[in-house]
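User: Can you model how 3,4-dihydroxyphenylalanine sits in this protein?
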Amino acid sequence: MQQKINQYTSEINDFQPKNAEEVEIFRIKFLGTKGIIKDLFEEFKTVSPEDKRLFGKVLNEFKQLAETKYQTLKEQVDSSGLSNENLNPDFTLPGEGFELGSRHPLSLVRKEIIEIFKKLGFNVAEGPEIEDDWHNFSALNFPEEHPARDMQDTFFIRSEKGDGEAYALRTHTSSVQVRMMEAGQPPFRAIMPGRVYRNEAISARAHCFFHQVEGLYIDENVSFSDLKQTLFYFVQELFGEGTKVRFRPSYFPFTEPSAEMDISCTICKGEGCQFCKYSGWVEILGCGMVDPNVLENCKIDSKKFTGYAFGMGIERITNLKYQIKDLRLFSENDVRFLKQFQSELI
Ligand code: DAH
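Assistant: Here's the modeled complex, given as C-alpha cells:
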C-alpha cells in the first residue's frame, strides 16, 4: 500500500494537464466515487490494527494532496476563462495576429482627394468649426439679409466672451478661404477639408453635419480655364478616365461668375438611372472666380490678383464612389457597415 501511495504521489506531483478535460479525468481517477482514493480507503479496512495509525496518516495526507492539486488546477481553468484552452501553451505555435481595423469611408475619400490636389501643388489647410459672422458670411460677400444666414440653416452659438460678436458653427468650408487670404498675400493654392454644420432634419439625404473640401487658387492671371482644367483632371483621377464633366452657370455670393459642375453618372455611366434621376449627370461641386469684393475684404488687390475657388461635399462623392444611398450610415458607427472598407487602401 505504501508503495502504491508513493507511486500515485509522484504521478500527482508530475501531472500537467493540457486542457480542462484532462483535469476532469484526473478528478474522476483519484477523487471519483470509483476512484483510487476510494479504493485505498477500502484497502485500509484490511490493514492490521497496529499499522492503522501510521497508514491512516499517510492516506489522509495523500487524499489532501490529490484534493489540493485538483482545486488548484480547477481554479486555473476557471480563471483563464478558456475551459478547453491550453493550460500549458505551446510557444512554438504561430501567434494569432491582430485583426485589421478599417478606415472610415469618408476618411478614405478625403485622403484620395487630398492626394490628387497635392500632385497639382495644392497645400492642405484647416480652420475652426466655430466661426464668426465675418468669416462665414460677411467677408464672403453675403448680403445682410441673405437667406443662408437664416436661423433655419445656421446653428448659432451664444458667446460667453461678451464681445457682442455672433458665433455659429460654420455652414461651409469657404470660411477657411477668408482666414487664409487674411493671413498673407498671394499666391495661395490650397485645399481645405473639414466638417460643416447645418440646421437640417436628419434623413437619408440630409444631415445636420457633413464634410466639405474647399479649394482656392489666387495668383496673377488665374483664369476660368485654369479652374476647368484643374477640376477636369481631378475628376479623371478620382472617378477614372473617360468620366465626362459639364459646367452649368450658377450663383454664389463669393464667386463671379459662378458655376456648378456635374459629372457623368458613375453608376449608370450616363445611361440614366434612379441615382441621377435619369439625366445621366450628377452635380458634385460649386465653383467660380473669386469675387473681387471678397479679395478686397481680405486686403488683396483685386486689380492685380485673380483666382478661383470651389467647394465639394465629401459625402456626395463617397455616395458616388461606393454607392451608399443613406447619409446616416456615415455617423452611426455600425461595424457591419464600417468593416466593408477593411480592404481599402490605408
Ligand atoms: N460654399 C458652397 C456651399 O457650401 C460651396 C462652394 C461653391 C464653395 C462655390 C466655393 C465656390 O468655393 O466657389 O454650398
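A couple of observations from the model: Residues 172, 174, 214, 252, 255, 286-288, 309-311 surround 3,4-dihydroxyphenylalanine (CB under 6 Å). The first strand starts at residue 123 and ends at 124.
User: Helpful, thanks.
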